[in-house]
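EI: anyone free to look at a 228-residue chain?
SC: sure, send it
EI:
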Amino acid sequence: MGKVAIGVAVVCGIAVAAAAAVVVHRKTKKSGRWVKAMEILKEFEEKCGTPIPKLKQVADAMTVEMHAGLASEGGSKLKMLISYVDHLPTGREKGLFYALDLGGTNFRVLRVQLGGKDRGIVNQQFEEVSIPPSLMTGSSDALFDYIAAELAKFVAQEGSDFKESPGRQRELGFTFSFPVMQSSIASGTLLKWTKGFSIDDMVGQDVVAELAKAMERQDLDMRIAALV
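SC: here you go
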């Protein structure tokens, strides 16, 4: 139902654009004919517009499918995975935080100093690192050791502008842009690789645990606080 409505809207939009091109091409200096042509186009556009009730119907149908997909595996045409993110930032957060984004042939590392509600983002730095093609089809240890080593280098460059609270361990948010089945906010089992990756020994394993072990091998004192 939703696909049909969207398809009709797209076809009508294309038709309007095509009609406009023809009218512009044939435009004459006679303003009367031009005004009449614009009136016809406006009427055609209004008739092709998707009614608000239909858009709401499509949105409601998607909501139902999303809830069904979250309620049971295979219960919906939409693939839904629980994220375990049960609250959002308030803007009052303070301290030094790190992030690692693995989503393709490159990965990004970032650090940000937050100053709470009054100061917001005090400072931030990031770096993008290319992943050698051989590591995309090698072993899980080789891939995560490489990532952890680059992360350790980035942490070692932490300047005086970034300050962690005394006695507090550094925290890392891990964005892993591949299909995972999460079991908590900081754990998730890899379902399959995409985007050119093919590391068989990693499928079915906890990606957070693998990264944590690689960080330990680098003597990197950092806790993975969230998988997103």
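EI: Strands lie at 94-102, 106-115, 121-130, 170-176, 180-184, 187-190, 222-227.
SC: 👍
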